[in-house]
């Protein structure tokens, strides 16, 4: 009886991975890995890895000389957050990750229509939503594996160069950061996938996605400062409450951008001493206990940022799902 139930469970598992969704996902992953675009993305990820390893090699001797690593409670998190001749790891990732998500999503759907393969796919006995799910899952899987490898190599280089071992708390925080990064990648992938459904030409989808990324990354902070300057202009003598409210308004407007949400979340996860993502008054600073926060408290601080990124990703994918399901494919 136990043998029959075991065989039945194994057959269910095999049939699950041979479902139309997994067949389409494996096909998308195989096509992606064999493409020249993926090789270019590998070079870009290798540049990130080289920059991070160079930063470790440059900064670790100075940290050892100043006893910063030995006195720090989380020496390996310092590798991800400190900056020198190169930006810190999470700041560099926040700039490059949207490019990776956009580059793997802007032609996921419209290229199938242009080549005529979408008509042949839907004639097969599969549900239409499996097509869209596979086209979203495959890039997320590939990018997750890439950044897991890059982060692991950075940690391994730090272990070899310093001779220190990674603490369990640091491992948990690093995995929490990787999860936040995957959600951040998913947001830009979902947006580029939506543009791939809206626009029939891949060039139009790519330009629209890159335009939004450039606006939110470069022009949106400048526009925010101009708006706040008009609403609350700087005065020669401003009270502490006015300065506090002005800075809080700037941060709240900037958090419309997913890049700002990712940076805020990464700062709290990778820096256990951070107790607030907004401005602090003197009373709050005096009442703060000079000790690192537990991982649960750090996650509670960034819960709104993480929820915002997940909600944005789900909303974009839901719109893509609605438009794709209502689209006439045979024409």
UniProtKB/TrEMBL annotation:
It comes from the Bacteria. Keywords: Membrane, Transmembrane, Transmembrane helix. Signal peptide: none annotated. The keyword Transmembrane helix applies. PANTHER family: ABC TRANSPORTER PERMEASE, ABC-2 TYPE TRANSPORT SYSTEM PERMEASE PROTEIN. GO terms for cellular component: plasma membrane. It comes from Sphingobacterium mizutaii. One of its GO terms (molecular function) is ABC-type transporter activity. The chain crosses the membrane at residues 36-57, 88-106, 136-162, 174-198, 210-232, 300-324. This is ABC-type transport system involved in multi-copper enzyme maturation, permease component.
